[in-house]
């Protein structure tokens, strides 16, 4: 699996473009804005975008979803518990984030344990509620794209609609920290980290 990180949009949310080298089939995780930059990378690498995978429904992660779907005829996927958030500008906060109002309908509702096939790549969906009810992480081998659930040295905020501090700690503790220490974490904002580093030094995960 190959992937490229592109911090996009007003809030520089990390968009990840994942692709299978053999087939050039690709998926875009969280296209938060700046579609032209995303498209330039896709076209220069001759990728065929099949899916838009959303780790959750907040405005800073969905700013270029409509353009991405229209350009590539890609299938938009979000967890079933954030499906309605994507459709409502008040729930996804796009009307408060400096974006145009964003109201979209996903093509598929994801659930925990779903597998997304991308050429030879099989990605597992891990439901990690807490930042939102429908937050997910996307896992391939020892790589996890963690959205706004787990950051380097921090965790996602839980004071917005559908957020729960208890839930996010439970999700991280029981679904992420159980992974091997060398598991690489690529979050929705900021630099990458590993499970081992976060176990040792993340102040929110101390006993």
TrEMBL record:
Q: Where is the composition biased (Basic and acidic residues)?
A: 197-207
Metallo-beta-lactamase domain spans which residues? 12-189
Indicate the segments annotated as coiled coil, or none if absent. none
Q: Please give one Gene Ontology molecular function term for this protein.
A: metal ion binding
| Region entry Disordered, spans | 187-207
Q: Does the keyword Metal-binding apply?
A: yes
Mind listing the UniProt keywords for this protein, alphabetically? Hydrolase, Metal-binding, Zinc
Cofactors: Zn(2+)
Q: What is this protein called?
A: Glyoxylase, beta-lactamase superfamily II
